[in-house]
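Problem: given the chain below (458 residues), write out its structure.
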Amino acid sequence: MKIRILLAIGCALFADSGYGQSVAGWRGTGTGVFFDQTPPTKWSAKDNVIWSTKMPGRSNAHPVIVGDKILTCSEPYGLLCLGLSDGKLLWHRENAYRDVTDDELWKSVEAELAVAAKLRPRHATIQTSLEELGDLDEKTAEDEAQITQLTLQFERLEKQLKELSLAARYTLPATQREYNGYATATPTSDGEHVWAVFGNRVVVCYDLKGKLVWSDVLPDNPSVVWGHTSSPLLVGETLIVNIDGIVGFDAKTGKQMWRTKYGQSWGSAVHARIGDVDVALFANGRILRVSDGTVLDRVSTYLGSASPVVSEGIAYYIGVRSGAFPFPSQVGDKLELSAKWKAQLKGSTFFASPVVHNGLVYAVSTGRILNVLDAADGQTVYRKRLNLGSGPVWASLCVAGKYVYVSSRDGTTLVIEAGRQYKEVSRNTLAYFISTPVFHSNRMYVRTSERLYCIGEP
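Solution.
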């Protein structure tokens, strides 16, 4: 289900582009820490706004800064590139099924979708009838006969629908449209190309001029009605995408190199290097070898929508059940990591992705309770309920300069000094957003529901 656009030229561009340079993507380098910055600490929708640009649709994807450009996403399946200095839109590419499918294949897709459209209503009706009959406390002989007849019809329709593989692949999966949608995953870039994945299961690679290099439509369905959220991870020449299965693509060509069937992770994966082996760490606790998708370990934790964080050779999984897992010097067939410490955090069931900085772990629950732990032993340094309005905290925590930034869904951001005591520097309100702020030099970039903001102090 893939098309190639001038693939031979695309491969040449990769070869000449300095491919393998520093990757920009989810939370910058995956840590949420932006070093050597002089970030703004005060702003509003009118104050200290360098520029703001109206977005064509909302998105939870955070901005990604690549040279003099800034990349982000937009509902329903849009990838946008803007100028970093002025926010001017340079290009906008939509990635619906028709946009990434050639004419010949699309004819086959349409034919199967037409057949499926006739079968699905009957399939749904029979399923409902079987459920209703199954709920009867006492079944008559007539009921049993009807169940047998309907079951045969249902199985026959199931077989017919299963044979329509294109229709299944090109049918839009469910999502939670109010808070999630189809454009939540943050894109990633090597400085010459950008890769993105959308909730319709479309994976794309563009050059930074907006030319499509390759695309794919995966057969995976998100396993929950919340839809797809995890961002793609670029490690060397491998692009890792997790929707239901975990797929390793050749980033140059879009060829699928490996596939591992281990279920959906809401939180985005992060990269680490152990000895001379690249690994990817997932929110569900699994650790995969990047070269072939082999599962090396599964730590006993679950993060839900948050991501693990790697700092100084230690993997931190921070949630209600938290733990720190030091890496060995080398990787064998298995990792079998052991926890340096474990901790139970106070707060709601889910936590935003944490930050680890200068020996401290900062974690905030969606219920706005900040936990600061000693990274050495997991002991609580301090805990505080934050005044962030009524909205939950879904944006990941950030550290820029000497400050920690904590944002709630209603657009309120607390700026606090990093350290072992709570010291609030400022409280700022912008607009509704779920995306995570990013920082560059003395600027902060925030993707709200309606606009992309560049914030800076004069």
